[in-house]
Description:
- The chain is an alpha+beta fold.
- The chain is built from 15 helices and eleven strands.
- The protein has helices at residues 2-7, 21-31, 34-37, 46-55, 72-76, 95-100, 113-120, 129-136, 153-167, 171-183, 196-200, 220-223, 229-240, 247-253, 322-353, and strands at 15-17, 225-227, 258-259, 265-267, 272-277, 284-294, 297-304, 309-316, 355-360, 365-372, 380-386.
- The strands form three sheets. The protein has a six-stranded antiparallel beta sheet with strand order 3-4-5-6-7-8, with helices on both faces. A three-stranded antiparallel beta sheet has the order 9-10-11.
- Strand 3 and strand 4 form a beta hairpin.
- The longest helix is centred in the last third of the chain and has 32 residues, at 322-353.
- 36% of the residues are buried.
- This is Beta-lactamase-related domain-containing protein.
- It comes from Penicillium angulare.
- Residues 34-320 form the Beta-lactamase-related domain.
Amino acid sequence: MILKQLSSNITKRPLKQEMLDMVLKGSCRIELTQEDWNRPLSKAIPYFVQDHARKLGGLDSAREIQWDKVTLWSLATQLSGIPTVALPIGDLYQPQATAEWGAPEVNVSALSTCEVRYLADHNDQYCSAKDTIALVENFPPNFLPWSTPVYSDLNFMLLGVAISNMTGKSMSTIYRTSVFDHLHMQSTIDSHPTDSAGIARSIIVGAPEENFLAEPVITTPSGGILSTISDLQKLGMGILNSTLLPSEITRKWMMPVSHTSSLSYSIGAPWEIHRFVHPGSGKVTDMYTKLGDSGFYGGALVVIPEYGAGFAFLNAGTDRNRAMKAFKVLDFITSNILPALERQAVTEAKKNFVGSYEYSGENLNVTIDVAINASTPTNVNSDLVLG
């Protein structure tokens, strides 16, 4: 498997990365029932229960979020329609640049508790679930629930709050007991190391307090996890082999839920599904990806069920063009690996299936000839002759 090959000679040093909303979804698959997935937030999180009761009969759907229509499944599939807010403090990261561009000054009195705290001390990025919920309440929805997929980190933040509330477990406990321990992901953690040995074996770029040591907590379900290539390989293999879930549940999970305006891009739960078109044959192969990028760090996990393969990629750097360069690396890997996998699939199909198959019975003779179509070698053709 590519996942295994890529990790075989790479050091097991933790690198902060931002794709673990997929781990959240996998954890939820284990912890939640089908009934739980269809539960609206107005019945899953106490604040929204009270808010829904308060607004009964007087809700403006254009200006206020319908929490009784936003279910856990809509959060996981990016179909909730809730605002696209990167972080509770996302709009405050560059106040000086905002002033230079001529934007209005921030009205501190209108900010949430965590935002005020961050303005006073940029190293204080803690934001409680209560503060985050209070913040999102100030925004109108992007769309009505179930209208169209729109990415929002808040989907995964609220999904984390909901599952913690429903199970009575912290996200740290859920990650560890539902995923990490079962897959032996011993180098994956949901908070930065505090011991000297842990810090020494970590890859830290730029000022540590700006990115590596930042702990907003509420964002952990959306990507606040430190991991290694080796552990991501274990995660990818665990998905492909249905290690944590029954195979039929895995197959159900590895499916598109909605589509975007691009023919080459669909949405899963929480997959970003890129549709690769093979040159020459025009065949389409779906890649189930989870990408993430924040500050100086980025990462990707790609799973390709059709081939039982995939790859993982982590990157870090202070270069302003780091993310763009990382995407070019991913494009290079994809454009070379997928055609190679397809050629291997053709070779194996030829070895395992090409030939003549005959059956003779009392009143029936059947011959089936199976061959590779030379003009489109990805197709295995068969001819049936009855006699």
